[in-house]
Amino acid sequence: MGWIERDYADAAALVAGVAATFETACREAIAQRGAALLALAGGRTPLPVYAHLANAGLAGRIVAVPTDERCVPHDHPACNLRNLREALAADASIDPQPLTAADGDIDASLAQARALLASHPEPFDAVLLGMGADGHVASLFPGAANLADGLAMDGGVDAIATLPDPLPPEAPFARISLTLPRLLRARAVHLVVTGRDKRAILRRAQQDAQAPYPVATLLHAAATPVHIHWSP
C-alpha cells in the first residue's frame, strides 16, 4: 500500500521522465532475465514514451501487452494495438501482443486475452496506467456492471470483458481489461495523471480507499508503492 509521487513542469518533461524509467526497467529485465514483459496503457498520451523505447537500442526481446483494449477489429481507428504497433515499429525485437481477436468479437477476445496472459504468468517488469476523469484505470470503469470482478483481488482471473456505463461517446465499445490483481502482479506500477482536475480526483482516492474510483482500489491494494507521475 502507498505511492511515490513525482511532479513535472509540463507534459514533455513527464514523457521524458517516464520514458527514462521504462528504458531502465527494460534494460534491467533483459540483463537479469533475458527479456522484458510490459503492460502498456492505450491512448495518445503515452505514445511518445513507446517511441522512445523503440529508439533506445535496448538489444533484447520485449513483450508488450495492452492493459486494455476496445473490442473492435485490429484495423479499426479505435484499436489501441494499432497505435502501439506503430509507436514501437522502429525496434523489431519489441513484440506488441494482441489482447483481442482480430475481428473484435467479445467472446473470442476474452478467450484470446486469457490465453495470452496464461502464457505470460510471470510478473510484469513495469506497468503503465493512465487515469480517466472518472477515476478509471485500464478499462475498469466505475459504472460497469461487473466492476467488482475486475477489482477483486481474489477473483482468480487475469482479464474480463466489460462495458463502460455510461459509454464514452468518443469510444462507445465493449472492452477487454486486465484485472487489478494482474496489473499489480508487477515489479513496478506507474500511474500517469495530467491536469489539476484529475489531480483532485487522485487526492480523493488517496485519502479514502472506499472512494468510488477504481484508482482508489488500485492505490490501496498495491503491495508495493505505486509510482505516480503528474504534470499540469
Could you walk me through the main structural features you see in this protein, from its secondary elements to its overall organization?
The protein has 232 residues and is α/β, with parallel strands linked by helices. It has one domain: Rossmann fold (3-Layer(aba) Sandwich), CATH 3.40.50. The chain has eight helices and ten strands. The protein has helices spanning 11-33, 47-54, 80-87, 106-118, 147-151, 180-184, 196-207, 214-221; strands spanning 3-7, 35-40, 61-66, 68-70, 94-96, 126-130, 159-162, 175-178, 189-194, 226-231. It has a seven-stranded parallel beta sheet with strand order 1-10-9-6-2-3-5, sandwiched between helices. The chain has a three-stranded antiparallel beta sheet with strand order 4-8-7. Helix 2 (47-54) links the parallel strand 2 and strand 3.
Question: Which secondary structure elements does this structure contain, and how are they paired or packed?
Answer:
Layout: E1 3-7, H1 11-33, E2 35-40, H2 47-54, E3 61-66, E4 68-70, H3 80-87, E5 94-96, H4 106-118, E6 126-130, H5 147-151, E7 159-162, E8 175-178, H6 180-184, E9 189-194, H7 196-207, H8 214-221, E10 226-231
Parallel strand pairs: 1-10, 2-3, 2-6, 3-5, 6-9, 9-10
Antiparallel strand pairs: 4-8, 7-8
Helix pairs in contact: 1-2, 7-8
Report a brief summary of the structure.
The protein has 232 residues and is an alpha/beta fold. The protein contains eight helices and ten strands.
